[in-house]
Amino acid sequence: MSGSETTVLSGGADVTGEAGTTDTTNVAARPALEVTGLVQEFARPGAGRRSKAEKLRVLDGLSLTVREGEFAAVIGPSGSGKSTLLNILAGLDKPVEGTVSVGGSGAVAYMPQKDLLFPWRTVEDNAILGLEVAGTPKKQAREQVAPLFDEFGLGGFEHSYPAQLSGGMRQRAALLRTVAMNRPVLLLDEPFGALDSLTRTQLQLWLAETRQRHGWTIVLVTHDIREAVFLADSVHVLSPRPARVTRRFEIDLPRPRTADTFGLPEFAQLERELLEALGVHAGERAAAA
Amino acid sequence: MNISANVFRVLRTAWPPVLLAAVLIVGWQLLADEVIHDAQVLPSPTSVVSAGWDQRSTIWSETLPTLRETELGFALSFAVSWLIAGAMDFSAVVRRAVYPLLVTSQTVPVVALAPMFVVVFGFTLLPKVLLVALATFFPLTASLAEGFATVNGEASRLLRSMGASRWQEFWRIRVPGALPFFFTGLRVSITYAIGGAIFAEYAGAEHGLGLYLNQMQQVFRLDLVFATVIVVAALSVALFAATYLLERWLTPWRRFERAEKESAA
């Protein structure tokens, strides 16, 4: 962690001693994703490349641990460096300082904000893109993803083109593509941000249920507090720029989470606490929206 | 039911040009028969058609070499355009170096090049093939380069997060993304293709429609000149139409995109 070296470790070897004790719950002890002391700086626009003082510090020692099977939400004010963090977690940028280690295959499956389905590929061929890039033969990749379509509400649409799908279906197809990559951690960037509110709620309910069944480890970056509280096991609050994690909330709302969850008094309480952690105090709510 | 709907749609889009063409042809016939009365100044459409029909085997045997030149020239142009546009996509230096030269190459008039090619390469196939390639490769290259460059930055980030190499990215997203652009360029350039071959033959050849045109002009067989022109026009239109078939076959998803846009509008 000292210096500017970046190491991406392959985790998983350190927990062999306690194997077998953690397979019944979603919340296991071994970290699926461990982020320590991330620092990221950019040249200020127009400043040229002169001294270090001219640099804009976006991440300032950000640390985050996500257990295997945990659903972690990262939430922060806009401009707090969420996308900078995403780029580093997705392996697109290297941080100036700090480490990211992902258990298992060593990389996360990244789902960008827009669905980004490729219009020239059928839903099925979009779904296998990650596998194809990784070198899996097409036929084998198709067999591998085939069982997922029904669960993702896309049964019968395997051979449709994205332009033939509704917004909600496209988003589910994009998530299917992400899941199909078979990586240990799913990294979701505001996956439902572009949807209308009814579709968004439907997808949140569906994701809560499906994720429960599979025990996926998810890092969700969002600015939607309700979404974070409803879906996540833990919510990590970022400070304004330069960002670090200022608070970690454990969301112990009962599972399975359903439409009723939104009405629980604890839900409202957690939502209020999160608002406060983000610097919005009671009585100011109208201004926050 | 689907077929009759299609026929109806074709008729609906086809009737204005057909009607206009009919009016022009009738006007031409009247002008030739009633006003000019001289087949060496303006032959009537009926005399053009009957002269062309009489000479059909000659015209056909001259058409084949022209088609051959067009085909080879276009194949060369196709290969060169993908190579150049691909290289421009992979390297900004190549892009900056090549683009001005490409544009300059288009300012050289074919009229000036055709006789020069004949001097250099003789009455062979090669100068025709080169001229067709020269006349057609620019629209192809420019449209392809633009198509490659319009790739969504987010899409290429997604591919990189999947661990894709630059080559994989090119092949999986830039090539398919550029296809609609490519077909636009293809339609522009294909209309130049046969014209380019004819022009090259005109400047000096042993076979071909261009040579035939030249000969018929010299013996004042204007009816056969017109007949040949009609054949050339028909071939160009056929090639143009073929690009739509090819596009439909190679980019089947585009229909749904259009349908989506229409339903959104």
Walk me through what this model shows.
The complex is a heterodimer of chains A (289) and B (265). Chain A has helices at residues 82-89, 123-127, 129-133, 138-145, 148-151, 167-180, 197-214, 225-231, 265-277, 285-288; strands at residues 10-11, 31-43, 55-67, 71-75, 97-103, 108-111, 185-189, 217-222, 234-238, 245-250. By secondary structure, chain A is α/β, with parallel strands linked by helices. A 6-stranded mixed β-sheet of chain A has the order 6-7-8-4-9-10, sandwiched between helices. Chain A has a 4-stranded mixed β-sheet with strand order 1-5-2-3, covered by helices on one side. In chain A, helix 8 (225-231) crosses helix 9 (265-277). The radius of gyration of chain A is 20 Å and the shape is globular. In chain A, 40% of the residues are buried. Chain B is mainly α. Chain B folds into 2 domains: 1-37; 40-264, MetI-like fold (Orthogonal Bundle). Chain B has helices at 2-36, 45-54, 56-90, 92-107, 110-121, 126-149, 153-161, 166-203, 209-218, 222-250, 254-264. Chains A and B meet through helix 3 of A and helix 7, helix 8 and helix 11 of B.
Radius of gyration of chain B, rounded? 23 Å
What percent of the residues of chain A sit in helical stretches (DSSP H or I)? 25-40%
Mean pLDDT of chain B: 90
CATH architecture assignment of chain A: 3-Layer(aba) Sandwich
Shape of chain A: globular
Q: What's the tally of helices of chain A?
A: 10
Oligomeric composition of the shown chains: heterodimer
Largest interface: A-B, 24 and 24 residues
How do the strands of the widest beta sheet of chain A line up side by side?
A: 6-7-8-4-9-10
Number of E strands of chain B: 0
CATH H-level name of the largest domain in chain B... which superfamily?
Answer: MetI-like
